[in-house]
Amino acid sequence: MKFEHSVRVVRAKPNTKRILVVSDVHGGLNLLQKLLKKLEYRPGEDALVVLGDMVQKGCQNLDTVRFVMELAKKENVFVLMGNNELFTLEGPDEEIYEHGAYFRERSVLGEMAREMGLPFPKDPAETHALREKAEYAFAEELAFLRGLPHILETEKFLFAHAGLTGEELEEQDLEFVLAAPRFHETVSTAFQKLLLVGHWPVANFRSDSLSNEPLYHDICHVLSIDGGNTLKSFGQLNGVILNNETGEWSSVSADPYQTIAAPCSQPFQPGVAITWPENFVELLERGESFSLCRAEKSGAILKVPNEFLYEDKKGLRVKDATNVQLELIQGEPVSLIEEGKGWQMIMKEGKAGLLFTEESSKSL
Prior knowledge:
By secondary structure, this protein is α+β, with helices and mostly antiparallel strands. It is built from nine helices and 23 strands. The strands form six sheets. A six-stranded mixed sheet has the order 1-5-6-7-10-9, with no helix packed on it. 42% of the residues are buried.
């Protein structure tokens, strides 16, 4: 997909003490509403920035857009375009069809077809016809997405969906702004203002843990905040609270998992993590419940639940996995992500890890 537009920059001076920032909602309206409550968002009194990728891969894409459209009618609300918004608007019919065929009801195309009472298209030609009908049926929503700016600058902060090559904002390349891969690892500019970006899940930048917590680049002054909602098996939605007076920041999060009481206590045990897309592994030994694997990129060796292994056309992969054991006290609240015989994958304070519920399972 080509990015042929010039960047649209908005400069604003919100006279609020707090600027709240969310990113990569991906059709997770319920989670966004939950997060805004945890942030104690006060319309008008707080500024709110949505860093793009409201849509695709979730179950409430159109409702998320409509909700954000209502928010955007209020003072001090700024919504930026992400690559998924531009893809929804201008992606080639073949790519839109293939994306929709994979995600079905978790795609904008699938939701549009359902709301219009039409079948899901069978090929790119039917996709084109459906999109033409959608231009009338969803004219208000599509106009809102088309009008979104790409970069926001305030007195102390910069905001973009994926990244910036520098602080000459009107000279940015739109493809980089919306779709720069692994920006947190490749950024070389030392920004004068704190730059906040999403787009690439922060868990992909960590090899020693599965952590969704925002990641600060202290040399380049960049804060990456994508918590991997819908994209990660342990994803969450992050909300950053910026102090508009001091420039300081903090964060809270919301996740979609069941909250349980930790069934037992365990001490912290460090380990390694494997995350998509660098999740190819070599199978060293298959066990009854766990298998011993070597990560192809890092060479790290760890045991993972057999349920986490899968194959595609490129080879053997493992779902986002870790052998880190989080420190837990029996009874404390944790999020349950997945469980099997003698083990649970749980999340605490934005970090995922294993909890062994049976002593015998630790040696698996």
